[in-house]
Write a structure and sequence with these properties.
By secondary structure, the protein is mostly helical. It has two domains: 91 residues, no CATH class; 94 residues. The protein has nine helices and no strands. Helix 2 runs parallel beside helix 8. The radius of gyration is 18 Å and the shape is flat.
């Protein structure tokens, strides 16, 4: 019996599901960006990209601990999932505590003080993205195909909520951030049920 059969991972199936989910996420990502681009001014679109640029500085460490958690989960170590998730949650809290006081300074330096609410709203995603990395690392070790399902769920939620909030309710920037935040939250709930 081969290794993949012993641990219950169907390699080809998992690879196919993840591949299809990522290809579909390209299409949904383009649709989401198109909704934002068509609903915002040039300045607002620039703010959208800047918000995500600033966010990336505070999520840069999100994948560091999950790498090790995945290795321990794959080896069957007791408590590896809980330790990996809680450690990454602690890192996210520190990153958020550093991020929030810097928001007024960053927005003032960039001359976009009227968008300070958006920068504060996106702070929720710091915690979400750290948790998402931890959950995905733990699931990748035992149930890799579920990552594809989670991505499909998140992308469907993102586009559906984006259409409602960005197009119908005419809230382009707030709608985009809320759509992404809720989509990742739904993905986290799906993953949490699998852990």
């Amino acid at each position: 019996m081969s290794d993949w059969a012993k641990n219950g991972i169907r390699v080809q199936y998992s690879g196919f599901i993840i591949f299809v989910a990522r290809v579909l996420s390209i299409a949904s990502g383009l649709a989401f960006q198109y909704m934002i681009a068509r609903s915002t001014s040039a300045q607002e679109y620039g703010v959208w990209f800047n918000v995500n640029d600033v966010l990336s500085y505070f999520t840069i460490l999100a994948g560091l601990l999950p790498f090790w958690a995945m290795r321990f989960v794959a080896r069957g170590e007791r408590g590896a999932v809980k330790t990996g998730v809680l450690a990454n949650l602690a890192v996210s809290m520190v990153a958020t505590v550093v991020y929030l006081p810097l928001v007024p300074l960053v927005t003032a330096a960039l001359g976009v003080q009227r968008y300070v609410g958006l920068y504060i709203l996106v702070s929720i995603q710091i915690v979400e993205l750290h948790l998402l990395n931890a959950f995905e690392a733990c699931l990748r070790a035992k149930k890799p195909h579920t990552l594809g399902y989670g991505l499909l769920i998140a992308e469907a939620c993102k586009v559906l909520l984006g259409y409602i909030l960005i197009i119908k309710l005419q809230k382009p920037l707030e709608g985009a951030i809320i759509s992404l935040t809720i989509a990742v939250a739904v993905q986290l709930i799906f993953y949490l049920k699998l852990l």
